[in-house]
Amino acid sequence: MSTLSPDARSIVAAAREAALAHLARLEAAESLLVAAHVTGSAVLADYYPGRSDLDLLVEVSRTPTEADLDVINTAHQGLGLSVQATYLPAGGLTSTPDAAGDGPWVKEGELHTDERCFQLNPVTWLELARYSVTVHGEAPTPTVDVPAAAEFCRTNLREYWAPLLDQAEALIEGREPDEPAVPEPVIWLAFGPPRLLHTIRTGEVISKTEAGNTAAAEWPDLAEPLLELVAARAGTPIAVTVAHGRAVVESGRRVLAEV
Hints:
It comes from Actinoalloteichus fjordicus. This is Nucleotidyltransferase. By secondary structure, this protein is an alpha+beta fold. It has eight helices and six strands, in the order H-E-E-H-E-E-E-H-E-H-H-H-H-H. The protein folds into two domains: 6-136, Beta Polymerase, domain 2, CATH 3.30.460; 146-258. The chain has helices spanning 13-26, 66-75, 122-130, 146-172, 183-202, 208-218, 223-233, 242-258; strands at 33-39, 54-60, 83-89, 105-107, 110-112, 133-136. Strands 5-4-3-2-1-6 form a six-stranded mixed β-sheet, sandwiched between helices. Helix 2 (66-75) links the parallel strand 2 (54-60) and strand 3.
């Protein structure tokens, strides 16, 4: 099991610049910002400027007021649309996800204040402890529970990914292999289940690209379409077809069969 020391962690310059630009936009809410930590693709060597989201966990000094929420919402528009962030009470990240407290969160430019953010889970805490990069304030010392992370992954596979696989299978049933498919959902479905399987097996968090490569290595009969989807995620022009969709569904079924 690999655990990077804080000094060994890094993010590409474009991701750091995007994070600092976002924090600058938050300065309009005076004295709100305490600390900010980058997670996700930017710390897992899988960040593609202009296409990847930037994931942040932000510690704040107070329960955001209406004025604070206006600043947060504005910060996530325009250039901030690609920033996905959760705003939590300062110090909450040193505890467990359940005890971290609640706060607003923003995904795809939409501010949420009336439901708990999905990112407050044991897998995010693994990522926070082992791979995150602090770009403002003090680095947290989160409580990590590897068995809880594995169980979270199993539940997520059953409750979220299995229905998506059923839907995908129904959509491609009876279609010819060379018929075009919508790339984004195929790529999304390709890498999620293998990522979770890797965490269940190892207690580590890997990127979407690494998950695709790992699945291709484990299942050689699916390697060609899976590796083409890895290339498509990186920006290579790939004609995504029903054949890719079938490989993705089969890969997902194999993951579910194991867990």
